[in-house]
Amino acid sequence: MILLGSTGSIGVNTLLIAKKFSLNIDVLVAGKNIDLLNQQIKEFDPRVVVIADELDIHKVNHKNVEAGNEAILRAIESSECELVVNALVGFLGLAPTLKAIECNKQVALANKESLVAGGEFVDVNKIQPIDSEHFGLWYLLQENKKHKKMVITASGGAFRNWDLNKLKNATLADALKHPNWSMGQKITIDSATMTNKLFELLEARWLFGKGVYDAVIETNSLIHALIEFEDGSTTAHFANASMQLPIAHALKQNMNEKILPNVDLLKIGSLEFKQINSDRYAIWEIKEDILKNPHRGVVINAANEVAIEKFVANKISFLDISKEVIQAYKKFDVKAKNISDIFEIDKEVRKWSKQL
Amino acid sequence: MILLGSTGSIGVNTLLIAKKFSLNIDVLVAGKNIDLLNQQIKEFDPRVVVIADELDIHKVNHKNVEAGNEAILRAIESSECELVVNALVGFLGLAPTLKAIECNKQVALANKESLVAGGEFVDVNKIQPIDSEHFGLWYLLQENKKHKKMVITASGGAFRNWDLNKLKNATLADALKHPNWSMGQKITIDSATMTNKLFELLEARWLFGKGVYDAVIETNSLIHALIEFEDGSTTAHFANASMQLPIAHALKQNMNEKILPNVDLLKIGSLEFKQINSDRYAIWEIKEDILKNPHRGVVINAANEVAIEKFVANKISFLDISKEVIQAYKKFDVKAKNISDIFEIDKEVRKWSKQL
Fold first, then answer.
1. Pick from A112, A134, A261, B107: most CB atoms within 10 A?
2. Residue that finishes a domain, picked among A130, A160, A189
3. What residues contact residue B303 under an 8 Å CB cut-off, 6+ apart?
4. In the sheet where B65-67 sits, what is the strand order?
């Protein structure tokens, strides 16, 4: 397979599963963590390696190393593998997703921005989502049973129990304290603002089509998805929080091997559900509107990436992130005609957002 | 259809669903509630009516009324209907189940004693269970996914929060205070002793075959069943507590109509899981053993019916019910060779239990 983003948490788990299933790694794509990349090269012996920065090439223990986004696309094109695992972070993951589909490859997709920004122009038949929520929905779908609502769950992020009045002083360090697990910086901030869940609703909308989508907070992060069926039945997918489960299913069809221990409900004792409201999570204000207009995902994604950069650079406050995203959403009421438009809109929104 | 037990809560709900789906009622079988039966006759105009007691025949507003167990079997035999809904209570429901299958009819089965006592000799391909737990398991099963454990839930019954020391003084009135809903007398007592859940595990064992079965207490009675899959996924079936949902599916294949409102998790707020232990529920002591030897269900069913009669007649205490059932279970280590043996064993155990 081709693995984009091999040194992040999804990448590392993907390699664990690849090893379990004895799958060949043809291409490894990583960012700045060259030490870990070198370990992975030693273990998995890829044909090609691509990294982010040309200046790091000499540090990589491989004879076939390239750098930059164009090199990623060339590596996909040159590979005979049928599967691309895309665990890149941010909008830059979209072009590789499109390239993989163009080359008729399957995409195991952890890069949520591919669908959030470009969902309208992505052939979802080629996509298997690597995300507990979409995996959970997929697991629960049943052919003969008519569903009426798909629900995903949220942990509530770092500030779920904070006094609302203190949120304005929240620091980067505060935002990175995820209550239930450890992930990369961007997604942890997106989790604190609830933007991550809004993105997942948009992804679900593209993956599963028109319908009713919603999210609730489940504080233990053991239920990942629920489907409400027409008859009055509701089914839920429980699993211990590990990306290995969706990854294993993405890497192998009809996977029936043991990946995780099952959730022990008696040990947990209780589960708690809470509403997501816009007092705490300002971005939730635009949820209904954007679910009706999912093509506008490109706008909030671009504005969000810029706002997070500013927050990380200490230029804006935590609450400003969602404020700026909503401002951009109101400003840019646009509809792309094709995938090139998506890249244009993305650029335009970023430019505007940077000058805010 | 042929409806056995039309005036109980399952029977009444079955008629509501039959009306919704415009299904014809060919035979009504009821017990002592002649007033309600007469209303049902007026509304559904059955061809044949059967009641329990010959002395009540003159009260029934129908020209074709018979009485007694043999009359039930004749009514099944004489009907052209393909579906029998068996909502009789106790061991006397077994013979009609067998007769219906012998006549090549489908059985929508709420009479759990049919499987508990005679499961080994009942063709389960002809059975659709009317019970939230088995319906939930059936709903969750998926062809391509390998399951490793099936779990049903229990409310915990009337005494789930009682001081253990006070249980010895529990009265019939106490035992009938079910925490979550109202059902008939026998099943409510079985719920208080947890014998009802043991019976449902045995039913599940016959319906779904060899495997691992267990039960947990879920105090809100909103989750009815869970399946643990091999990969580490667990799925759960949630529904508001109403028998109309399993009944509707039993009466109509591929049913996708609205029967109930879906559970509102945000209104519920939280769910609580507790272990079933034999300190509070003495019958749980024999759970593992009987699940390995499900053919011995006939013994505990007979002993349980007798013990409940004694408890209702104020001849033994609440705690004596399970004590006597366990005594009988230890005394009668028998295996029926055929269905006649089942009836013989049932008789023998009853005789012994009465003299205890």
1. B107
2. A130
3. B324, B325, B327, B328, B329, B349, B350, B353
4. B65-67, B48-51, B27-29, B2-4, B83-86, B106-109, B127-129
Of A231, A245, A271, the CB nearest to B258: A231
The ipTM (two decimal places) reads 0.94
Domain identity same for A52 and A105:
yes
Q: Which of B76, B87, B273, B232 is nearest to B146 (CA)?
A: B232
Residues A189 and A85 in one domain: no
DSSP state of A261: P
Quote the minimal CA–CA distance from A240 to chain B in Å. 8
A237-258 mean pLDDT? 95
Which segments within chain A are labelled E, that is strand? 2-4, 27-29, 48-51, 65-67, 83-86, 106-109, 127-129, 147-154, 213-218, 223-229, 234-238, 270-274
The C-alpha atoms of residue B326 and residue B344 are separated, in whole angstroms, by 19
Instruction: Write out chain A residues lying below 8 Å of B275, CB-based.
Output: 266
- Does residue B181 have a pLDDT over 90? no
Verify whether the Cβ–Cβ distance A230 to B260 is below 8 Å.
no
Average pLDDT of span B251-262? 95
Residue A137: domain span:
133-354
Domain end call among A106, A130, A154: A130
Q: Domain containing A214 — which CATH number?
A: 1.10.1740.10
- Report the pLDDT averaged over residues B242-264: 96
Q: What is the CATH number of the domain that holds A71?
A: 3.40.50.720
Nearest CA in chain B to A220: B270
Joined together, the tokens standing for residue A244 give 């290995």
Whether residues A232 and B260 touch (CB distance < 8 A) is answered with: yes
Same structural domain, A67 and A153:
no
- Closest partner CB to B262 (pick from A228, A240, A249): A228
Give me the residue from A232, A263, A272 closest to B262, CB to CB: A232
State the total domains in chain B.
2
Which among A229, A257, A266 has the least Cβ separation from residue B230?
A257
Averaged pLDDT, B309-327: 97
